[in-house]
Each structure stands twice: as C-alpha cells, then as structure tokens.
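Field guide to reading this record: the first block holds the primary sequence, the second block holds the structure written as discrete tokens, and the final block holds curator observations. Each block starts with its own label. This record concerns Peptidoglycan binding-like domain-containing protein, catalogued under organism Merismopedia glauca CCAP 1448/3.

BLOCK 1 — SEQUENCE
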Amino acid sequence: MKFKSLALLSFLLLELGLPNTAHSRTVGKVECGSIENFPTSVRKISLATIKPTSQGFVMRITEKNGTDIFQLNRKLIIESARTEGRGSWNLVPYHYDPYPVKIKPNGSFDIAMMVSTRSSCSFQGNLTFLGGAKERIFGTRNASRSPSRHSQNTQVARNGFLRLGDRGSQVYRLIEDLRCAGYYRAGNDSYFGPVTQRAVIAFQSDRGLLADGIAGSQTQKLLRQIRSRRCG
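BLOCK 2 — STRUCTURE
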C-alpha cells in the first residue's frame, strides 16, 4: 500500500510540475553569472516539465532557488518568466533578439538567455513532456526524430543572429573572425559559449556598437571586413 501511495504521489507531483521530494533526482543544471564573469552560480535542476497551453507552452524548472516558470509561444520563444514567490524577470534584453528554447524529442533541452542587461543564465538538462506537448512540438510522425545538424544551422542562418548557446559552422566562422581581429585566443570551436560572448562584447564596445554579446549583421560585417584585410 505504501508503494502505491508513493507512485500516486509521484504522478500527481509530475502532473502539477512540482518537485518530487519522495524521489529526489538531478535532471540538469542552471548556470548564471555576469557577462564578465560566467558562471558565478551553478545549481542542480531536480525537475523540468513542459505542457501545452492555449497560447503555446508552459515550462517549469525546479532548482535550488525555487521553481522557474517560462511562458512560451508556439514557436518556443519565451514570452515571460518568473520564479514562484519572487516575481517576474527582466526579459527586455532577451526580447531584443528572442531565440527559441532548444528541445529535442528525447527530452533534452537548452536555454541560453540574458536575464538582465549584464547577466545571463543557461539551463540544460532533460525534461518530461506532459499533456501531449511532444506531439504538439514535433508532430506525431516526427516525435521520435531529432533535428539534424543541418536543420539547426539553417535555423540560425534564417535570422542571421548568433548568440549564447548557438552551435554550428556559422559560429565557427564567427570565432575565426574574432580570432583574426585579436579578440579570441582559445582553441577552435563551433560553440557560442561565454568566452565567445565576452569576445563579441569586447569587439562591439571597441567599435561603438551596442555591446549586447549578440553577433548581428553589423557585428559580423565589420568582423568580415577586418578578416579580409588582415587574414585574407
């Protein structure tokens, strides 16, 4: 009888998107910090869920500081975010260049976002699909298929912006441009991580651009011009 009660409790907590203290576990991590010093805080995620709503989806991430609630539209772009009992987040920097939450059919997710003008957070782990969310996101036929690397690169190319959390050949070229300009000294990579973000911010500051750490068309154009002069 005891085991049946625990199973029922686990199911109810999962449906509500609440942490299950009866079976504590780690499904991911949160990393936060300033642009100049990232990360300064690393916390474990004990539960992550996503569920459909009439406007899109609601994603709940339970970690040490509480439960973070993200309201996503149908394109998986975050419309609002708050921590239960602590109020809403400042998403003005994020909305300057909104980027969809990355979710794969196997439940792995990746969120990289600005949470203030000088701070960012990344959320990575595995979530649980609730209420038909998997079918809503991927469709019935494609629910078990992961997006290819080509399709991910195409999505980046479509909006032309490169930012924290991006991967692929375009990021690799950006890093090589930054290296040629003297702003990147780490190894070869195709991941837009905190090191790349700091390099972009430094370049933007020196060139009088908006130093937001997002490599938009103007930033990329200036870097390409410098590379063509210096590195051929």
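BLOCK 3 — OBSERVATIONS
The longest strand covers residues 41-52.
The chain has a mean pLDDT of 80.
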